[in-house]
Amino acid sequence: MEKLIILNLVLGLSIFEFFTLLVGFITLLILISQVYYLRRSLNADHSRRRKQATFDYLAKVRPQWHDTRNDLDILIQAAGEKANIVNVIIKNPEILKKVRLLLGLLEHISVGIHTDVFDKEILYRMSGKQLKKIYEKFEPYIKYVQIHVNETAYTEFQNLVLEFNLMVSNPPKKDELPVME
Q1: Structure pTM?
Q2: I want to staple 119 with a disulfide (CB 3.0 to 4.6 A). Which of 8, 17, 39, 54 is the partner?
Q3: According to DSSP H, which parts of 80-119 are helical?
Q4: Contact predicate 116/50, CB 8 Å
Q5: Helices 155-169 & 120-148, crossing angle to 10 degrees?
Q6: Main-chain dihedrals φ then ψ at residue 91, nearest 5 degrees
Q7: Is the CB of residue 159 less than 8 Å from the CB of residue 110?
């Protein structure tokens, strides 16, 4: 009789241990799924905030770069030496100041894109063509500065425009477009 009681006791403890282990395993699975969904939620929130930061920053900066670009168009036309834009920029301190301001703003935005502070897709959709036109217009000056002053000047902006050109030649397919969750 004592052996039967001991056997029932051992069997009862084994069943209890099994169920305790099973509950622990289920708890671990629930915890893993919660971590997965938390991480996914944080990534989605980061993406949303990055896009919002891009909108906010562009709303603040775009009027300034539009005004500067318009001023430059007027000043460069008045200088009349359209063939050699580098000479026009270098010889006129007012134009030089505005070109540096404009390219500085665009370099700042480009650094934000390349450090994942701002969203490249949003910037491309809102201002990609304008940025490419600005780069094309001032490319001779940018190259001049890189050769004669600082080889890394405006490289972030230059690289961003190159990336935008690749985006045009390789647009995403419908199944590759990001899905908002």
Answers
A1: 0.69
A2: 54
A3: 85-91, 93-114
A4: yes
A5: 130
A6: -80, -20
A7: yes
